[in-house]
Amino acid sequence: FRNWVSAASSTEGFYLNGALEVSQAGPTGNMSAPLLKIGRHATDPNAGTNGYFTEIALYNTNLSAVNRQRIHSYLGIKYGITLSSTIDYVRSDGTVIYPSTGANSGYVADIAGIGRDDNSGLSQTTSRSQNTDFVVTASGASSLDNGDFFIWGSNNVALTTGSTNVDGTTIKTRLGRVWKVAETNEVGLLTLSFDLSAVPGAKVESDLRLLIDRDGDGFADNDQAPLTGTLVGNIFTVTTPASTTLQNNDFFTIGTINTSSTPLPVELSDFKVIYEHPEVIALWSTASETNNQYFSLERAGEDLSFVEVVRRDGAGTTKVPQTYKEIDRYPFTGKSYYRLKQTDYDGRATYSSLRFVLIEGSDELSIFPNPVEDGKFNVELGPTPFQLSELEIFDQQGRSLQQNIVKESDLKLYEFDLRETLPAGLYMVRVKYNGKQTFLKLAVR
């Protein structure tokens, strides 16, 4: 969105999703329509963009901040574009219809909505966020009049994260992602569809429920009766009845009554790694587990190429909190990253966020014997086991002469035998180890 920021100083700016990205001095005076171009051609500075625009709005006056906010809100709702979290959504008369900076500040991801505003020409009867993880689509409002809006946003919790904030009797577990409603006036009955493709595990229609929290104290008391729906593929669809029509400030999410046939994700409540010389200890706990076959503790160096350190069986399906402890007996010197990979019985896998440790100490590789006389030499990192993945030898002109891919790992000493006897001279050896690389000199006699 290109707009004058200050007509007096001939400054213009570029707005992205409602937020000013950049401003600079612009041309003075008026621009006539034939000279107005949108964008610039890649090779011809006199040509405009060769492409398509969904909507272009031209104004013959400088827009105030209030007017820009109204336009951004109109475009955001019409096209499912989530505005900057510092922008409240307003209708054409300036009334706030989604307070991103206020009561809904924790629910500013994947904002979308339906609504009608005759003054701006908005009539949005079906909507979803344009973001790839949108999940929710709303349609079929039974009473959508001028000035009516139904807008929602999520807390952006990963769809691989579950929660036990449920009653535990009827509803066994639920998604960690929750959506909040901002309704202006009344839109009537609604049909909500949830794309659960990114939620791991099988889904059975009779197990799924739409959960609604109306009093703001969570989903444990079922203050609104959980709603059933239909499941086609991974799309779960619910039409809200008159008795439980979603209202302003309601929260909603998806739960299951059967964690065996419809598992929702493992709820990882804690994960940390601690260096206790000479080992790294990984500790994690779960509040609940569903269809969990095993965990893999994975480690990487600075290149973030992860390898499995140890594997630990999961608890299957349980609502009883579990604690785990595993040890990396051969950690890297320097900075190492760790993550947990959780694998279900059906082979689906999810990953935790990263943790890291920094281990101070000598990190100097050595080659011996050096010079080499019989083609055989060793690579060592002090007395500590380390992970060597590749060794490559170059001549003084930088030409690669020999490459060795290492399959073993976590050894104290790696042995090499030159496949071909190299002429006497000085060579450079590139060693990739512990997720990084270094160059060493190698003399051959």
Layout: helices, strands, pairs:
Blueprint: E1 2-6, E2 11-16, E3 19-25, H1 65-79, E4 89-90, E5 96-98, E6 109-117, E7 122-124, E8 127-128, E9 136-139, E10 149-154, E11 162-163, E12 173-175, E13 179-184, E14 191-195, E15 208-213, E16 230-232, E17 235-239, E18 251-256, E19 267-276, E20 279-300, E21 307-318, E22 322-328, E23 334-344, E24 349-351, E25 355-359, E26 366-368, E27 376-380, E28 388-394, E29 400-405, E30 413-417, E31 425-433, E32 436-444
Estimated radius of gyration = 30 Å
Biggest sheet descriptor: 8 strands, antiparallel
The total count of strands amounts to 32
Mean pLDDT: 85
Write up what this structure looks like.
The structure is a single chain. The chain has one helix at 65-79, and strands at residues 2-6, 11-16, 19-25, 89-90, 96-98, 109-117, 122-124, 127-128, 136-139, 149-154, 162-163, 173-175, 179-184, 191-195, 208-213, 230-232, 235-239, 251-256, 267-276, 279-300, 307-318, 322-328, 334-344, 349-351, 355-359, 366-368, 376-380, 388-394, 400-405, 413-417, 425-433, 436-444. Helix content is 3%, strand content 44%. With 445 residues, it is mainly β. The model has no long low-confidence stretch (mean pLDDT 85). The strands form seven sheets. Strands 6, 7, 10, 11, 12, 13, 15 and 18 form an eight-stranded antiparallel β-sheet that branches. The termini are far apart.
